[in-house]
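Continuing the series of single-chain predictions for the mutant panel. This is the parent chain; the variants come on the following pages.
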Amino acid sequence: MGPDELSPPERRLWDAFPTAGHVDLHTGDPAADDPVGGAAWGPERVVRAEVVAALLLGARDGESGHTAAVQLTGARITGRLALDHADVQHHLRLQDCWFEESVDLYGARTRQLSFNGSHLPGLLASHLWAEGNLRFTGCTTSDKIRLVATRIAGTLILNGARLHNPDGEALNATRLQVDNDILMRDDFSAQGTVVLRSARIGGSLDLRTARLDGGSGEAALDAARVQVDGDFSAYRLSATGRLGLRNATVAGATFLRSAALDNPAGRTLDAPGMHVGSDIVLDKHFRSHGQIRLADATVGGRLVMSGAHLRAEADDAALDAYGIQIGADAVLDHVTATGLVRLSGAQITGRIEADGSRISGHTPGATALSLRRTTAREADMRTTRLDSALDMRYSALGVLHDAAATWPPRVRLDGAVYEQLHDPLSAAERLPWLSRGDSAYVPQPYEQLAAVYRRLGHEDDARRVLLAKQRARRGQLPWYARVWGGIQDAVVGYGYRPERAVAWLAGLLALGSLLFWAKEPRPLEPGKEIEFNPFVYTLDTLLPVVDFGQGNAFAPGDGAQWVAYLLAAAGWILATAVATGAARALNRA
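Parent structure:
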């Protein structure tokens, strides 16, 4: 290709190339210069793609003392810019240009590449090796950008770009390697999925103020197994569709502060198995309509969701963090959630804070907050409002902070272990807490509460709880066992009220003594009379294992005989109940 074959704008570019001169074909009218309407630009702004390729591939040498480069602004580039498998030694900067056909950089080796502000019908740059930055700031596209297995030694910049491919992938950067950052901020938008599967990012992934719309696909972002050596920042991100971060690794922090995620029929943030070196921050009016899944994730710092608004449809969990490992605190203060918040199996080194949160299950009997098999140093739920059930089964907590005024309608405590209650309350105040479970009788919650009272030195409260345990158990027994249990309860309070035995004994002694004083029994052997003592006679009748000689020396007559029988039976019952209670106390000791 020679200079005589060039149009005037192409000749300007040809002449400017050796010294990296800048050719600007703008008219000065912002509306007329908008690349979205570049198809209507006249011949005075047309540059053939083959001219650009020829310059980059050595059709003209640079001048001594200068670095040759293509720097073109405001051009309508016709034909296909084909640089596939080429070794491009010069910088390429095409700004505010309109491309008739997609650009082909497949397998090429390049220096700095810039398409800032341009309109591209598509870009094929898979297996590209870019030794500098790759810039798409303010670009618009009408088809896919492909960066599969591409290597960028600098930064990938898409700030303010608008990618449009709603029926498929807006950007496919599977296995991309970027030595520095990927920047998709400042109102970057994508209609269609942004794919970063198995990408490796040496710096940060920045999506601040970006807008993602998965279009007809479910995923707005597919970043499964991505590795980010810095932070993942998505402040004020707006996403329609799933953010897929399954098994992703972020060495720094993950920020979605003030983000709005919308995927009612599925998951908004899908990050099972994700590894985050520092914090996950979903606060400051973060909003999710759909399910957040952080199952089996590992968080080196805190999980912060203060002020978040979560909503899931049907029976989905609003937050599913089953098995999550958190190196510091789980901060869920002032969270509003419709749907289950699941922290089951979580291992939390620090505290669970849920100050001022309001969590509602989908139905009145459904679980609102699940801490099943969760371990944490503390759990603060004093002002947490749960409209349905709290599941704490088999959890292990150091200190539990709660308040009677905010106890949920149902509390499942079977197997829960806690070292201390910050506000233990009295047994009379605390027992209704235990009665809110699914079953009328589960023994472990009573034993656990009694153990806490004992550690605090509140022996009376501990005995009262264990007595309530036996009474609850009695309701599950056959009728005959319930009768015997009722007797034990009335006589000695199942061994936890031994003073009742003394009261029963004193009452029966007084009753018998008065009766036999009024109607003295006749002697059984008249020639061997001993002096009758109504008190000792009653004591002999009541205590089956004691013999003071009165019981076998006299025989009451008429109705008094039946009283003696009843006293003897009461004595046996009293003795048996006392022995049973003593055995229970010894076993407990």
